[in-house]
Design a protein that fits this description.
13 helices, 12% strand
Length: 363
């Protein structure tokens, strides 16, 4: 199975590269100011002066701003595509019957096939012939595990301009309902607003309850900014420092919340189909994040997921540390061991001995 969390790490690294680039632009501006102040000292450095003038003109033009806006939005859209592609791969690996796919996903397959047949030029960038598209749908009825993925391009197709409504609609097609509410209820997403002084906990909860889409204004701005630079020469533009300080952090926490929801939805999908390995009840739970339990017949290691279930609600917990008899290990090698499992310590994932525990292994 694909590890959905991998794509968030990839997105974080891409945004960091853009942040580093933006910092380099600010350094270029500082360098230009410094060189202007020391103009007499540079009279014999002809190429240095030419470079200074060239950089000054580039920084003053919209080119760098436009490129940065398009790059940031491109990273975010690519991230959404990758996460849903991974989710699609995972559910295709699990299902055995076409009817197990979410109903709206099955409906979308037929509708997109029809649109593809009527308007094949609209999908000219897809490596998909008309004959292949028809065959893929026909054979997915009887062999969904293999053939459903062959029309993934059609199933993952969206209209672009990924505002929160479009992302929520894509999630609904994959059987993940109430997506906007799940994002605003995410602990990390809420903490971003409180930590940055945009809301206190009371005003956040009120907004999340009454006008949840107001919490996605920064995403709306980014989509609009991307459309502006993609279709025209933007003269009025936001300072790069303001973009870095006020918008990139939001996109990162939004991507994180989406990742958590997708992962939890997939674990629920596995749970419903009895595809998780049952560990049972803990021997002891220490400080709400250390689980002492017998591993039974299961072999697992750091990076695998422990699923805590109580009253049919699940929490997805990544294994951070493992200990046997006080000794730290990377991975279990034997069955029927009492093991201490260390999890991330977070206010929203506190657990106790009332939970039953399951395992999902990626390694």
């Amino acid at each position: 199975m694909d590890n959905i969390r991998f794509f968030y790490s990839e997105f974080e690294n891409q945004i960091k590269d853009i942040e580093d680039y933006m910092k380099s632009i600010e350094l270029q501006k500082a360098m230009i100011r410094e060189m202007k102040e020391r103009g007499n000292d540079l009279k014999d450095l002809n190429y240095t002066k030419q470079y200074c003038y060239a950089i000054k003109n580039v920084v003053a033009s919209p080119i760098q701003y436009n490129a940065i806006i398009i790059s940031i939005y491109g990273c975010f859209e690519h991230y959404i595509d990758e996460v849903f592609n991974s989710y699609m791969n995972n559910i295709c690996e699990i299902i055995n019957n076409y009817e197990e796919f979410p109903e709206r996903l099955r409906e979308k397959q037929i509708k997109k096939l029809g649109d593809f047949l009527v308007n094949p030029k609209r999908y000219k960038n897809y490596s998909l012939s008309i004959e292949d598209a028809i065959e893929n749908v026909y054979k997915s009825f009887t062999h969904p595990k293999e053939w459903m993925t062959r029309n993934k391009d059609l199933l993952l197709n969206h209209g672009g301009n990924l505002k929160i409504d479009q992302i929520s609609e894509l999630a609904k097609e994959f059987g993940i309902n109430d997506f906007i509410n799940k994002i605003v209820q995410n602990y990390g997403f809420m903490s971003y607003f409180v930590r940055n002084g945009l809301h206190n906990e009371d005003t956040y909860r009120r907004t999340a309850s009454q006008n949840p889409k107001n919490l996605f204004e920064k995403l709306e701005w980014f989509v609009s900014a991307r459309n502006d630079v993609a279709h025209g020469w933007v003269e009025e533009r936001m300072e790069l420092n303001a973009i870095s300080e006020n918008y990139l952090g939001f996109l990162k926490i939004l991507a994180y919340a989406i990742n958590e929801i997708m992962l939890q939805s997939f674990m629920s999908f596995l749970m419903e189909r009895e595809k998780l390995c049952k560990l049972g009840k803990a021997i002891k739970v220490i400080d709400s994040h250390i689980v002492c339990i017998n591993n039974g017949d299961n072999i697992f290691g750091i990076g695998d997921y422990l699923i805590a279930v109580k009253n049919k609600k699940i929490k997805v917990l990544e294994i951070k540390t493992l200990q046997i008899n006080g000794k730290s290990i990377e991975r279990l090698e034997k069955t029927n061991n009492d093991v201490g499992i260390g999890l991330e310590k977070r206010d929203d994932i506190k657990i106790n001995q009332e939970y039953s525990f399951y395992l999902c292994k990626y390694n």
